């Protein structure tokens, strides 16, 4: 029994010990389970089971509600599900999140540029959640967030601290390089004060909301900032293909800025900004370039014009001569052809020449306005070309003050010329055909040098000429009536008289039919003769007195008889002493006038052939009236000897004014209208009896104006007319006192 008790006692002790050991083991196991051991895993399994249970209940509620409440919206359906879960006595906490939950930080600037020893205020804005309703399920005193996504409810297995959801934000700021700049949160304000120190450099300011852990950064650069930028020119011209340094175009304040300039161009096809910091002209045109500081807060703009400057210019003509009223053209060539420089044309004297460019301005029309010179200038950029234009007015006509003139040796004659038009630019030139006879100056002053004829030619322009035939003579002539008649038979003689006659004929501009007296030098002797002078001629061994009637009066039949080209016989005479008596016409008629008279044939044959040929008688043209009653029926005969006409003695009388001009001798002695007056100067002595006066009459070659069988005659008193019966053409007793020329 005792053993049994001992055994029982031992057994009890052992049991107690065993229980103690079991209790120790159980404690260890519990400890393991409640920690990371089996108990913790058991708890997790319970939580997961509960979570799955609630998820299943929520999704079941959602499925049952979605048809009925779908039209009310998803939010209403979710709210209904939560209500169903609460009805099933699940503990669900509802919180509205976002009003204090930070999900981001926004800064007014993410990059701050500032000067040394300066302050910048950085402001921030906290970004909160959207403010949605959040649901939390309580499981064993802990809360797990319920979420709905794509039609399915799920529960977050991570515990949520509900107390931390609505905490006040806590913002901090810190510079990572505090010897460059410091950062400090301003109490009560959403701002960060950044203070730069006296050192250039860069740092990063970190701004953080501590509760959420959300952070952002602001880069700070401490530098010498630009205060102003100014372009040196409002407009910049740049050659196509050329480039300029950009920084050289602007003035920056302060000059020691550490900022980098930012350059942009409005049109990169016109100008290009290259990496080397230069502006390049790409093509012709105009655009704008802009320069800013690094953050674009300071800027300046400038107009850039890409140009193509002219490098060369030339005109197709350097001189032009143009007539007034005409036009011409000038063309300019410019290098390069596509230059952008404008082409400008000007005329130095627009009153002389005007210039009108066409639309291309490469061709211009010159219009000549008036005589003169003007320089045309064309410019393109800095290049210039010139053309000198001379406007001329060509002569179209010319007049000269005299066409014939006579001057004495040593004398001068001023000729003048008038060009047409008066403003012609053609030069008037004067020229003498024989400068040994007469010279002419460039103003038309003619100087006589020696006897002869010189043609003074005046020229102006092309083919426009006029001339004046100037006869230079050493002869002195007079048209006055003071000459005293003398006998020149011995003082002059026929040999000298023939020479004088030639000189007179050669000088018909000096000595005319109106000349009364001439002085002519032959070799070393000067001879003076005049109208009325007498000289003796021998005929049939008899002496006959002849007298000078005039000079250069009767036209020559043979103009070359003197060896030149002469118009008039030098001296004309009549016989003072009649040669004979004769009738005028054997038919007792004046029909056909002097041309068919018997006495005419006798004088120019028998009488002329009998007279010594050394007297130098010249054949001249004598007018006569062919029909007695027709003063206009004038014809000409060619005679050595002739009878004077009524007109050659008396300047006028009825019906006889067309058969010759009055000689100078009769102009002086008879006058113009004295044919009915007795005049002793017309009387002649009896034929063959020198100096004897008779009452005889002598024939004139003029047919009577009324009687067809009669001729006029001079009566013994010296006047015209007389008894008509005594004027019958075959009346024999009338004397023959012919005239002649040498």
Outline the structure in words.
- The chain has 742 residues and is of the alpha+beta class.
- It has a four-stranded antiparallel beta sheet, covered by helices on one side. It has a four-stranded antiparallel beta sheet with strand order 2-4-10-9, with no helix packed on it. A four-stranded mixed beta sheet has the order 3-12-11-8, with no helix packed on it.
- It is 16% helix and 40% strand.
- Helix 1 (2-34) packs across helix 2 and helix 2 (38-69) packs across helix 3 (74-87).
- It has seven helices and 51 strands.
- The longest helix has 33 residues, at 2-34.
Order of the strands making up the biggest sheet:
1-5-6-7
Task: Give the low-pLDDT segments.
Answer: 1-10, 26-36, 688-693
Q: What percent strand? A: 35-45%
Number of helices: 7
């Amino acid at each position: 029994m005792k053993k049994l008790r001992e055994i029982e006692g031992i057994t009890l002790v052992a049991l107690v010990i065993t229980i103690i050991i079991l209790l120790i083991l159980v404690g260890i196991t519990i400890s393991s389970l409640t920690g990371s051991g089996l108990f913790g895993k058991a708890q997790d399994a319970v939580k997961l089971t509960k979570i799955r249970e609630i998820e299943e209940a929520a999704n079941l509620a959602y499925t049952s509600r979605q048809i009925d409440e779908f039209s009310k919206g998803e939010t209403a359906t979710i709210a209904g599900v939560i209500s169903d879960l609460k009805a099933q006595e699940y503990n669900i906490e509802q919180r509205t999140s976002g009003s204090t939950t930070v999900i981001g930080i926004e800064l007014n600037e993410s990059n701050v540029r500032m000067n040394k020893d300066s302050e910048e205020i950085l402001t921030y804005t906290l970004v909160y959640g959207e403010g949605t309703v959040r649901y939390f399920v309580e499981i064993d005193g802990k809360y797990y967030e319920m979420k709905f996504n794509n039609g399915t409810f799920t529960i977050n297995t991570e515990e949520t601290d509900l107390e931390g959801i609505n905490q006040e934000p806590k913002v901090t700021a810190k510079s990572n390089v505090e010897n460059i700049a410091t950062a400090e949160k301003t109490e009560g304000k959403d701002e960060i004060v950044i203070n730069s120190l006296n050192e250039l450099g860069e740092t990063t300011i970190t701004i953080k909301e501590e509760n959420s852990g959300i952070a952002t950064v602001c880069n700070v650069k401490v530098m010498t900032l630009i205060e102003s930028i100014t372009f040196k020119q409002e407009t910049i011209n740049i050659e196509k293909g050329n480039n300029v340094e950009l920084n050289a175009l602007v003035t920056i304040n302060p000059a020691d800025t550490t900022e980098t300039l930012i350059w942009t161009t409005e049109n990169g096809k016109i100008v290009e900004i290259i990496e080397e910091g230069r502006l390049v002209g790409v093509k012709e045109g105009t655009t704008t370039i802009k320069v800013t500081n690094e953050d674009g807060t300071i800027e300046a703009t400038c107009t850039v014009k890409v140009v193509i400057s002219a490098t060369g210019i030339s005109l197709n003509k350097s001189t032009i001569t143009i007539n007034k009223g005409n036009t011409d053209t000038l063309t300019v060539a410019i290098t390069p052809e596509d230059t952008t420089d404008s082409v400008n044309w000007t005329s130095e004297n627009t009153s002389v020449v005007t210039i009108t460019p066409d639309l291309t301005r490469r061709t211009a029309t010159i219009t000549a306005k008036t005589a003169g010179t003007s320089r045309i200038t064309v410019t393109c950029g800095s290049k210039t070309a010139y053309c000198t234009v001379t406007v001329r007015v060509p002569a179209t006509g010319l007049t000269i003050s005299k066409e014939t003139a006579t001057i004495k040796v040593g004398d001068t004659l001023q000729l003048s010329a008038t060009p047409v038009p008066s403003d012609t630019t053609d030069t008037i030139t004067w020229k003498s055909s024989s400068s040994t006879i007469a010279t002419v100056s460039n103003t038309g002053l003619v100087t006589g040098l020696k006897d002869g004829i010189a043609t003074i030619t005046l020229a102006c322009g092309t083919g426009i000429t006029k001339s004046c035939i100037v006869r230079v003579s050493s002869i002195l002539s007079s048209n006055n009536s003071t000459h005293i008649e003398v006998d020149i038979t011995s003082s002059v003689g026929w040999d000298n008289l023939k020479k004088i006659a030639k000189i007179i004929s050669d000088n018909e501009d000096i000595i005319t039919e109106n000349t009364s007296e001439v002085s002519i030098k032959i070799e070393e002797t000067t001879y003076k003769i005049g109208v009325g002078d007498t000289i003796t001629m021998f005929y049939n061994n008899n002496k006959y007195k002849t007298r000078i009637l005039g000079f250069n009066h009767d036209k020559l039949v043979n103009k070359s008889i003197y060896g030149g080209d002469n118009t008039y016989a030098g001296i004309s005479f009549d016989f003072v002493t009649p040669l004979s008596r004769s009738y005028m016409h054997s038919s007792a008629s004046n029909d056909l006038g002097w041309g068919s008279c018997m006495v005419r044939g006798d004088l120019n044959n028998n009488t002329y052939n009998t007279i010594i040929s050394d007297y130098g008688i010249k054949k001249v043209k004598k007018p006569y009236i062919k029909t007695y009653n027709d003063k206009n029926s004038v014809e000409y005969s060619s005679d050595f000897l002739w009878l004077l006409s009524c007109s050659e003695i008396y300047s006028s009388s009825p019906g006889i004014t067309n058969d010759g001009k009055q000689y100078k001798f009769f102009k002086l002695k008879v006058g113009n209208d004295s044919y009915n007056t007795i005049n002793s100067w017309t009387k002649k002595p009896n034929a063959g009896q020198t100096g004897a006066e008779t009452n005889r009459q002598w024939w004139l070659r003029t047919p009577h104006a009324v009687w067809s069988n009669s001729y006029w005659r001079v009566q013994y008193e010296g006047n015209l007319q007389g008894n008509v019966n005594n004027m019958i053409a075959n009346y024999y007793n009338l004397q023959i006192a012919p005239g002649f020329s040498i």
